[in-house]
Structure formats: C-alpha cells, structure tokens
Amino acid sequence: MSRPTYDDVLRVSSPTEEASAERRPVRIEEVARLAGVSPITVSRALRNPKMVSEARRERIRQAVEATGYFSNPHAKALRSGQSDIVAAFVSNILSEQFSLAVEGLAEVLEPAGFQVVLSRTSYSYKRETTLVRSLTATRPAAVFITGVMELEANRSFLRGLGVPIVESWAFARDPIDMLVGFSNTDGARMVAEHFAERGYRKVAFIGRSGGRGALRRKSFAMHCERLGLQVQREITRDTVSGVPEGREAMRSLLEENHDVQAIFCASDLLAIGGLLEARERGLRIPDQLAIAGFGDSTLAEEISPGLTTIVADSRNIGTQAGELMLKRLRGETPERTQKHVPIELVYRGST
Amino acid sequence: MSRPTYDDVLRVSSPTEEASAERRPVRIEEVARLAGVSPITVSRALRNPKMVSEARRERIRQAVEATGYFSNPHAKALRSGQSDIVAAFVSNILSEQFSLAVEGLAEVLEPAGFQVVLSRTSYSYKRETTLVRSLTATRPAAVFITGVMELEANRSFLRGLGVPIVESWAFARDPIDMLVGFSNTDGARMVAEHFAERGYRKVAFIGRSGGRGALRRKSFAMHCERLGLQVQREITRDTVSGVPEGREAMRSLLEENHDVQAIFCASDLLAIGGLLEARERGLRIPDQLAIAGFGDSTLAEEISPGLTTIVADSRNIGTQAGELMLKRLRGETPERTQKHVPIELVYRGST
DNA sequence: TTGTAAGCGTTATCAG
DNA sequence: CTGATAACGCTTACAA
C-alpha cells in the first residue's frame, strides 16, 4: 500500500481564546475570594442555591463564570461519600439495544449533573462480581443494570450500597430495588402463538443457555406444548449472541436433518445469522423455513425478508430508569418502582 | 394490553456468602493493620510491588484478599492528581464503529487497571467544550477521541493537561499528541476511482457538512474532477448521519431530477437510508443508480444488494490507541506516535 | 526498604 | 443565612 494522504482537518479557532496558559485547576477558594464569601458558601450556592441569599448567589455565579470553575469530583466524592457517577452495568456495549438504553439514561441524568459510566460485564459472572465490589469505593450515586443481576451475593452487595438501583430487560419479581422491564415470558408466548396461527407445527429454538435466553426458551417450550406445537430441537449456547453464532447454530440444526418448519431465535442477531445461513443453503424463507427473533435490531427491518420479531422501546427503558433514579435522589418516593414496558410482535416477511 | 406475566429469573447463590452485612468500605489502614505494616507500605505494595520486600508483599497480598480491599479511587485521584480514568470522547455512542473502538480500547486498558469513561459529545462543539473543561478537575490518566478535535481552544486545553491524548479516525497533520487514523482523503479517492472504473460519469455526494463528511466531500470532488466525472449535486446536512437522514437526502436528490448514475454517501448509514429510499421508489440498483458508502457498518454486508463501501478496522483503532497510551503511561516513548490504519474498498452489489 | 507528617479540595458539623 | 474547623482516604515529600 502506498503512502497515505494527509487529511486536511478543519481547525476552528475562537479568537477570544487566550494562549495555552497554565492548567492549574481553579479551586473553590479562588471563587470564594473573588465573590467575597467563604468557600463553604460557594459550595452551598452551587449545590443548594436556596440556602444562600440572593445577592451573594449572584456574586458567586459571576465569580464561577469569571474563573471557569468546575468542582473537583474526587474531592467532592471523598468528603461527601457520594459521587456524581451513575454506574451502568452493560453485558455488551456493542448491543444496539443496550446502547440505546444507555443513551436514554444519559439524556435524563446528564442535565441533572450526573455522569453515566459504563461497566462492561461481558456476560461474565466473575467480571461482574469484581465490578460490583469495586463500587463500595467508587460510591456511585445510583446503579443501572441492563438485565437482572443473577448472583445473590452481588444482589445483596448492591442492596447494601444504599443507593437507587434499577434493573431492567425482564419483568422480574422482587428486584434488588427498582425495575423497568418487559415480560420475556410474554414475548416468547407471542412467538409461539404466532407460529401456531401461521400453521407451523414443527418448531425449534436457538438461544443463549442462560439469562434472558433461558427465560425465552422455557416460556416458548411451555406455550408450544399448550398450543400443540412440537419442539423438535433446542440449540443453546453460552456465548455472546451475534450473527456468527446464529449462522453456526443454524448450520448444526440443518445438518441434523430435523423436520422443522419454524425457528424461534432468542435474539435478533442470532435470527439474522440463522436467516443468512439458511438462505445461502438455498432454503426459501418463510416457505421452507420460518424464522422469528427477539429484540428489535435495526437490521431486522432492513434485511430481506424482514425479520418477524418482538419489539420493545429500548431507549425508553433507559429514560424511565433515569427518571426513577432522579426521583429517589431528590428524596421523593416514586409511587411505582416497578415499571412495565410494553412489547409487541412485529410481523414481517420471515414468518 | 393485559397484565404482564412475571419472568422467573434465575437466581444464583454462592453458599459461602455471609449475610448482607455492613457495607462500610475497607480502608488501607485496615489492610495495613492485618499485615502488620504501615498504610504507606500497603500503598506501595499495590502500586509498585518492587519497592516492598518479598515477605511483606505476600502478607499484604493475603490481607488484601481477606478484607476484600479496593482502594478508593477518589482519594487516590485527589492526592496524586491523577485518576485511573481514561476519558473517551465519542460523538455518538450508537455508532457501531465507535463502540467497537471503545471496546478495543477498554480491552487493552482495563487489565492495566484503567477505567474507560465515555463522554458523549453528540456532535456539539458546546458540549465538547464543557466536557473538555471539566477534565481539569477529573484529572484523567489519558484521553481518547473518536475523531480529531477541531476547536483550537479545546486542543490547547487538552495539550495543557499533560496526559497522553490519542485522536483518531483521520490521518491528520500535527495532532494534539498522538494519532491512530486512516486517510479519509484516500478513501474518498478510492470511491471516485471505483466509480470511474465502473463507467459512471455523472455522480453526486451526500454527507455531513462538517468533520469527516467535509474531508470526504472535498477529496471526492477533487478526484472526480481529475477523472473527468461530473459532480451534479452535493447534499450536505449538519445533523447526525443515520438511516432516516439518508432517506431524506435521497428523497430531495431524486425529486430534484438530476441526471445521476452514482452517489457517494459519506457514511454507511446514510448510504443504506439512501439505498432503501431509492429501492422503494422503484429504482434498480446499481443499474439505474449506484450507491457507495464509507465506514463498514455490519448492515452494509447484510442488506441486499450489499453496499460497496470503504472499510477500516475500527476495533483495531481502539486497541492501538490503548497500547500507545499504556506505553506513555509507563514512561516509555513510543517510536511512532502517529499510526496509520489501512483502508480498502469492498466491492459489493450496490455499485 | 520502611515509616512519619502533611495535604490534595471539598463538605459535614457545629457554632454564631 | 453564614462561617470556622475538621475530616474524607490516600499518596507525596521527606526522614530514618
């Protein structure tokens, strides 16, 4: 490969900007001096304006502006035992749905002065445990979890933190604290019912063996039985559920030569992988094989045929979680601490 | 909608776990007492084991284990003036490419004890400036930017921080500090050359008006001129480049009734939006209209026809950035502080 | 190699 | 409503 060409990146200069001077941070004391008050008054004016007289409040505001003061989050957290950090446990930051939830969460929390910090658990209990334990020192203001924490030890640990905690992505009984979730059980039921309506009788399941995968598998199997559908095969994997895993699972399934008309894949990416694999092997979809997913990936709509799947509003999960947290952080008591998020089956060409 | 069904979420209990006792954090002093040494020795053993004798090191290790000690990051940052935080400026956390880079970055930095914290700039100079200024107080160990910082004020501010900084996603001259990027200019040239080879003469451009969009537009226009292609129309938007924006831009373009054979969209999502819109309007792709993108979205491969696009290894950008940072944080001097990432044109059905 | 003393910048506490 | 004082838990600087 030849020498790369340089990009002429745009540079925007603000003419008012002084030269790159010293970066010594401004401390609260400097602001106080400028405003002619004591440091603690500045602190109060910033955190709880009502505690400070109108006149001083204004002088302090100007001094903050003039100095470009930002309070030191470490000092604040150290002394007060509470940081502005909201810890978000995400099993997989590449997941579109989880990213949307984090986006929604951040949109609500950032204007209130909190910072969302991601903890990538990578579907590992061990990592999760380490990360949970480190929270005692980090002292987050609240904790969000894309999912439900399964390890009892971690659950009780989090509860002991004494901060608002929101679990999500399932409609579980007795959450650690608060919950914003949908019923995986109902979602899987809807798929089973949809298969029955479409006249498919011999079905199969592909999904992760733990967590939501297990919930969806169990409910699917139960409702298939109820509706007289025969589950010919269940393929479960404990790896991340991506397109490659979906392809691989579909490959095994097809090579086993089962007599299957429709497959429920417990995540959209699995389903899309499966769909691609099946298509490449010359199967007509949905005539020779129907496929349904779970999760509302954007891909589900763009692929052809479009993927029939269960859809929930991921961003909204984050938004609601943020709102619950804020209420609690303000000392209010939300009337409901378990929010139910509606889901629906979107019928597209793959079934 | 009827009452949701509860999910029976799996709960895993570790039998060895004691009851949910007090959550009072363990301090370094407690570890020191248990190991029979002074706190500062524990501190040293944890940060720089070589400074402490073998025997004590082992006793301290055991004491840390026994107590479940985690050092308080706020106290550490406050006193040392340096935190374990690596700040990652991401314009859009929903971008698959940026998420991959962050994933790569985190994979390298976390084992070394650093924590990657995302700052969502949302393509806003104002937000970016606020976030940059807040770094003086946060005292990050290093800064990663998915892109090149354009505001001179912010550039000099970051430089003044005195920590390793890695810009990316462009092969720019004089970065703030270090750089891991590819040439957008070359990428756009490759598209122009590809259009020429395929015999398209009348072309158009769709992209964001600033940042990388501008780089790609400029280079594309230049090379079109060189190759004798006529750029009939350039549609630029200053919004986020998603599928809806692509649809909308394609709609305007088609309604203007230009005589266009091929369109270069400066991002894959724009291209995919454009492709969907064109297809829905009955245009045969690529016969009646060819479309190329930039960026290697997974969608590009799955959609039909597949999208011809410029591909770089996003995760690798993050990995390399992490490695550069670690070297500097260890006091080493990397021989090259500007890494070039190769790109290639992947030819699929859309052109 | 180890320890002592001091202080990072903020806020809880208590007094006015 | 405002201020003085001390303390959060750690690490730097210096001493032994």
Protein structure class of chain A: alpha/beta
CATH topology of the largest domain in chain A: Rossmann fold
Using the alpha-carbon principal axes, give the shape of chain A. elongated
Oligomer: homodimer
The tally of beta strands of chain A, per DSSP, is: 12
Q: What is the CATH domain class of the largest domain in chain A?
A: Alpha Beta
- What average pLDDT do the residues of chain A reach? 92
Q: Quick one: CATH superfamily of the largest domain in chain A?
A: Response regulator
- Taking all Cα atoms into account, the compactness measure Rg of chain A is 26 Å
User: Beta-sheet strand percentage of chain A?
Assistant: 15-25%
Give helix % range of chain A: 40-55%
Major beta-sheet overview of chain A? 6 strands, parallel
* Greatest interface by residues involved: A-B, 90 and 90 residues
Count of spatially separate domains of chain A: 3
Q: How many helices of chain A does DSSP assign?
A: 13
* Strand and helix order of chain A: HHHHEHEHEHEEHEHEHEHEHEHEE
- Uncertain segments of chain A are none
- Which strand order spans the largest sheet of chain A, edge to edge or round the barrel? 2-1-3-4-5-11
* CATH architecture assignment name of the largest domain in chain A: 3-Layer(aba) Sandwich
Distance between the termini of chain A: 46 Å
